[in-house]
Design brief:
Elements lengths: L5 E2 L8 H7 L10 H5 L4 E6 L5 E8 L2 E8 L5 E5 L5 E8 L4 E8 L9 E9 L6 E4 L20 E7 L7 E8 L8 E7 L5 E7 L6 E3 L5 E7 L4 E8 L4 E9 L6 E6 L4 E6 L7 E5 L6 E5 L7 E4 L5 E6 L5 E4 L5 H12 L4 E7 L5 E8 L2 E9 L4 E7 L12 E7 L5 E7 L9 E5 L16 H7 L4 E5 L9 H5 L8 H15 L3 E11 L1 H12 L6 E5 L5 H7 L8 H8 L4 H6 L13 E6 L8 H13 L3 E6 L9 H18 L24
Parallel strand pairs: 1-28, 31-32, 31-33, 33-34, 34-35, 35-36
Antiparallel strand pairs: 2-3, 3-4, 4-5, 6-7, 7-8, 8-9, 10-11, 11-12, 12-13, 14-15, 15-16, 16-17, 18-19, 19-20, 20-21, 22-23, 23-24, 25-26, 26-27, 27-28, 29-30, 30-32
């Protein structure tokens, strides 16, 4: 067994195409807005099952593409790049020679790419390109070279890649017009012809399907009309579905997450009583649950290897950590050795050959760019492959410190403080940056371009996982229900007060900035605490809950109104109380309003209504509206413009151009104001 890695300095693997990814410049000048706005060059790297090819998901000309390299020469074998607004969402190896990719289209409606429901397959050498599934299957408009596949007007989820069947994968299909007479179905999909063979029907009209490591259908997950989470278990003898678990939205759930072949047991995600979710063994005969691992503060996530075998758990109370469940597993052994080699980082495994002789590993840090390496188990050496953002020098980034505090009512919260690269940590201008969601997402220990942008200009940036955030158990998430404009805002205020009490923040130089729910919070906070904030930057925020109830994309779904009723309240009075637009007369701080004109999740009508209300109240604001953007800015040029406008706005109100400039303890770079719209 290897004990510690040798980082190989010999680097004959990487060709001229990749040489730029490894260069680390010596220029120590502040990182430019353009460099922060640039997309990462490499998003993912996947070894083929036999290790003959290495596939990478890259961003080229602001589009996601797959580049496949022969291995170990690293010569480019083929490129998968779709025309028009189509691009690759992600990909995986379906056998030794063929990848399967999901398609997405950039409609600018969300801050993430939405899959079109289609699958495209291609050999590693670029041949046999086939649009195998979806409403355009067989259509040559997406670079298809065969028309044998028939259109399917619906979407899918890949369930299992069926390693013992190189011609097929297992998927769940969801017709757009599905009814109880046309339910969700599990099919074997031929990845060369697109032919589908039915395996089983699934109860419910939505949700996921779980299989065991052999590809046998075992569970179905759905949401019923009353917004309950419902899980059914498949009985192979009677070929019938039986109820396994049912829970209302917001109730603690028990969800199957894996199978331990060594013990022939089912593993479930569960949170008995109060507190975070843990991993448990579940006896299907007796329904007895036995704790495998549970953390006292945060949820634990099960980790499985490329063959589906559980080997560990990951937790993130502050800096992410890995814990071993099976110390004989090759993935577990590698993770432990990686942690010894990169003690200040969080290493992870992206892929491995099927015989687990070679691995691609990634290394993540909140104060550095992500790097990718090849690990050869025989030699015990790591070879550098890619730096996701080679143009950014980690020495020029701010340091990120985890923290944990108690809210005024005793609720424990954690978060991250990003400080300027200068090392200054006292009497700084402070920006609090609440994350979006709010229920489910959380802030993580990873490089955050927005936080680092502001830190490199002399600002301290604080991000807190306020109540309602995900990752800390169902009770913590539920504690934010109907508290959008109440205790959740108090959590932000308490975090700012903590930073002031610690001497980190100058109490006269505080601003709030965020997107989506963070945009809502940016407006709600300057309303609720008019004397605390000197400015606010609400971006793509929900300002009027009635607008959201009527016009948002998810509000048109069968569960959307029920979700709003649950987290906001069921009455017009509840929605009004959680709508800061009705209280703009209390605002003292100037605002910088940011929105995308094609935003479907939080429609532009929110920003329009807010600006109208501010005009009526005589309150000052600036704006940046991008008509062709959605729930977030996709285009790098728009992000660069926004970054310049953001820093200029901060500089004028809490930074070196503000009335409090003599308080500044860190150098700051300002940008000229630009016009947008």
């Amino acid at each position: 067994m290897f004990t510690r890695f040798q980082i190989l300095t010999r680097f004959a693997l990487i060709t001229a195409l990749l040489a730029g990814n490894l260069a680390h410049g010596d220029d120590r000048s502040p990182i430019s807005y353009a460099d922060f706005a640039r997309d990462p060059e490499v998003l993912d790297a996947q070894l083929s099952p036999q290790g003959d090819y290495l596939g990478t998901l890259r961003i080229v000309d602001e589009k996601q593409v797959v580049v496949i390299h022969e291995f170990p020469s690293m010569e480019v074998s083929s490129v998968l790049n779709f025309p028009g607004r189509n691009q690759v969402l992600d990909f995986a190896w379906a056998n030794d020679e063929r990848i399967v990719a999901r398609i997405t289209q950039d409609f600018g409606e969300a801050d993430f790419f939405t899959p079109t429901g289609e699958l495209f397959a291609m050999n590693a050498n670029g041949k046999r390109r086939t649009h195998v599934f979806g409403y355009r299957a067989g259509d040559r408009s997406v670079v298809t070279t065969t028309t044998r596949a028939k259109p399917f007007f619906g979407s899918h989820r890949v369930l299992n890649y069926l390693w013992d069947d190189p011609k097929h994968i297992l998927i769940a299909t969801y017709k757009w017009t599905r009814t109880p007479s046309q339910p969700v179905e599990v099919v074997r999909l031929n990845i060369y012809s697109g032919k589908m063979t039915r395996v089983a029907g699934v109860p419910g009209l939505s949700g996921g399907v779980g299989t065991d490591t052999d590809g046998n259908v075992r569970f179905a997950f759905t949401t019923d009309d009353d917004f309950n989470s419902v899980i059914h278990q498949f009985d192979p003898k009677s070929r019938s579905w039986n109820l396994f678990h049912k829970a209302a939205y917001g109730a603690s759930q028990m969800q199957p997450i894996g199978f331990d072949a060594r013990r022939n047991t089912l593993l479930v995600r569960n949170a008995p009583g109060d507190g975070p979710y843990g991993v448990y063994e579940y006896d299907t005969e007796t329904a007895k649950r036995t704790e495998v691992y549970r953390h006292e503060f945060v949820d634990a996530a099960l980790l499985v290897d490329n063959l589906g075998n559980p080997y560990g758990v990951s937790i993130e109370p502050d800096i992410p950590r890995f814990l071993v469940l099976d110390d004989e597993n090759a993935f577990a052994q590698l993770r432990m050795q990686l942690q010894a080699t990169f003690p200040d980082d969080y290493p992870f495994i992206t892929s491995a050959t099927r015989d687990q002789s070679r691995f691609v590993v990634g290394v993540r840090n909140a104060s550095n760019t992500s790097r990718f390496y090849l690990f050869d188990r025989k030699s015990g050496g790591l070879t550098p492959l890619f730096n996701s953002r080679s143009w950014i020098d980690g020495e020029n980034l701010g340091q990120v410190r985890p923290f944990r505090i108690a809210a005024r009512d005793g609720m424990e919260m954690s978060g991250y403080l990003t400080l300027p690269p200068s090392g200054a940590d006292q009497n700084l201008p402070l920006v609090i940056m609440p994350h979006g969601g709010p229920h489910g997402p959380r802030d993580h220990w990873r490089l955050d371009s927005d936080a680092q942008l502001m830190a490199t200009r002399g600002y301290a940036v604080v991000q807190v996982n306020y109540r309602g955030s995900g990752g800390y158990g169902q009770t913590f998430e539920n504690s934010g229900f109907r508290e959008w404009n109440g205790k959740m805002q108090d959590d932000l205020t308490d975090t700012v007060r903590w930073a002031i009490d610690e001497g980190i923040a100058d109490p006269e130089r505080v601003c709030i900035y965020g997107w989506s729910y963070g945009g809502f919070a940016s407006l709600a906070s300057v309303v609720r605490e008019p004397d605390l904030y000197k400015c606010g930057v609400p971006a793509a925020g929900v300002y009027d809950q009635d607008i959201q109830y009527r016009e948002a994309d998810f509000a048109q779904s069968r569960w959307g109104p029920k979700y709003i009723d649950k987290v906001i309240g069921p009455t017009p009075a509840d929605r009004r109380a959680a709508s800061p637009i009705h209280f703009v007369d209390r605002i003292k701080a100037p605002l910088f309003i940011v929105h995308g004109g094609e935003d479907a999740r939080v429609p532009i009508s929110h920003a329009n209504a807010l600006m109208k209300a501010l005009d009526k109240a005589g309150k000052p604001y600036e704006k940046l509206i991008k008509p062709r953007e959605g729930h977030g800015f996709f285009k790098a040029e728009h992000r660069e413009e926004f970054y310049g406008r953001l820093i200029d706005f901060l500089d004028r109100h809490i930074g070196p151009k503000s009335p409090y400039a003599d308080r500044s303890t860190a150098a700051s770079q300002s940008a000229p104001a630009t016009t947008g719209g």
